[in-house]
Amino acid sequence: MKWWILPLMAFGCASANQRVYMTSLDWPPYAGQSLSDNGTSVAVAKAAFAAMGYELVVEFKPWVRTVASASKQDKYIGYFPEYWFDSEEFVFSESIGSGPLGLVQNRNKPIQWQNLEDLKQYRIGVVQGYVNTAQFDALVANETLTVEASVSDSRNIHKVAKSRLDAAVIDIHVLAYLIDTDPRSEVLKDRLEMNSQLLEEKQLYLAFKNTPEGKNWRDVFNQGLQLIKQDEIASYMPKEARLGSHRKAAFGSE
Asked: Which CATH class is domain 18-97+202-242?
């Protein structure tokens, strides 16, 4: 991520104890109630708001409720982390980082594909309510691809390990964290790997309500994001963000 310092916007800074509320989900290592600093994305978001004089309070919910609460309840100004998608309900911040999105597969039954249409022969797992890639989701919508939706990435990777799915869409860092922290970690390491072909390098964003107030909060956050120096980011990151060993777990011998 690159960071630049810009002048403060006319919107101004609030008192240090003024709070704003957003929703999120348990999606380690990016976000999670039990993670130190609540995860890497939350750490950056809190730092950016703090730079503008606000305290960000994050409330964690299941994913569908995370989005619904942010949309319908006045208490929340938005939710995160999210991939960009075409939306009339939300406007998006500048990127707070990125994560490689791909397919986890069973080592004993690797899948072969060049184009997304090639995946129609496989049973592909997704998480209910998650945005994947525009092309992938379009092929699901027009029924070119048939997917099986689960409530979590964790459930999907166990299905792949048991050959109940041929593959599942997942962020590399999420997969690596889940493998590394699972009670059956050694079994999962032995059975799972990322397919070498990525779907996309996805940017992560905060999603704010598409209202004048929501757009103001987006601008405030973006300004705070620019005030964070790059060499300070590491100090905001929890230990779960140090993903060297996790990447090895996801890619096996790579």
From this structure: alpha beta
Run of H or E residues at 219: helix 212-227
Structure tokens at 183: 């009670």
Q: Token digits for 146?
A: 């048939």
Cα 48-73-208 angle, rounded to 5 deg? 35
What SS3 state is found at 189?
A: helix
Would you list the domain boundaries of the chain? 18-97+202-242, 99-200+247-251
Confidence (pLDDT) at 13? 45
pLDDT at 111: 97
* The CATH number of the domain covering residues in 99-200+247-251: 3.40.190.10
Task: Provide φ and ψ at 65, rounded to 5°.
Answer: -70, -30
pLDDT digits (tens, 9 = 90+) for 38-90: 999 999 999 999 999 999 999 999 999 999 999 999 999 999 999 999 999 99
Residue type, 42: V
